[in-house]
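FORM 12-B: Structure-to-Sequence Request
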């Protein structure tokens, strides 16, 4: 339901002089409509929704969408964002080189990265692998992650991880790193040991 404000409110009637602001009142100073385009003679002003396009643009979008079906993307507001602590006004000099927690813009870059989406779509076993690693805690988690990425020391090598899983996880890790960096090359990143 959209809320419309009329331009035909008399200048001599203000809220302090008894102008009514009830949305249900009959003189139409403030009206509710299901669709503002249903009544072309409506004197009220509203901004049309962004999804209403000119016929030429609408046909072009239909053609492009029929050529390549895009999956339905969830809005960023529907995601459960992790807690991000505010930065201290007086940073601890001893923690200057420690890893920093991700900030909201970095989470947004990860959530909207096409490279991360491609990695997840092209490797259907990747979410299962990530969940199995996420269930672990402490050193076991670190070892499982190193093993899955293929960077575990030779003395700790367990049974070999399938090569395609290792490649898929590494592709995802590189995509996440690129999204977090945001194009900055001077920031320290992952050392693959290649």
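FORM 12-B RESPONSE
SEQUENCE OUT:
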């Amino acid at each position: 339901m959209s809320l419309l404000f009329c331009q035909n409110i008399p200048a001599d009637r203000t809220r302090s002089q008894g102008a009514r602001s009830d949305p249900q009142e009959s003189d139409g100073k403030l009206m509710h409509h299901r669709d503002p385009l249903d009544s072309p003679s409506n004197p009220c002003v509203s901004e049309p929704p962004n999804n209403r396009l000119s016929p030429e643009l609408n046909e072009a979008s239909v053609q492009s969408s029929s050529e390549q079906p895009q999956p339905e993307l969830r809005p960023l507001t529907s995601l459960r964002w992790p807690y991000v602590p505010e930065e201290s006004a007086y940073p601890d000099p001893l923690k200057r080189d420690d890893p920093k927690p991700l900030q909201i813009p970095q989470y947004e870059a990860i959530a909207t990265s096409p490279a991360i989406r491609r990695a997840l779509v092209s490797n259907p076993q990747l979410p299962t692998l990530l969940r199995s690693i996420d269930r672990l805690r402490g050193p076991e988690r670190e070892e499982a992650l190193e093993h899955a990425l293929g960077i575990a020391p030779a003395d700790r090598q367990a049974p070999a991880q399938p090569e395609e899983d290792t490649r898929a996880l590494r592709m995802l890790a590189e995509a996440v790193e690129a999204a977090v960096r945001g194009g900055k090359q001077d920031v320290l990143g992952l050392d693959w040991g290649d």
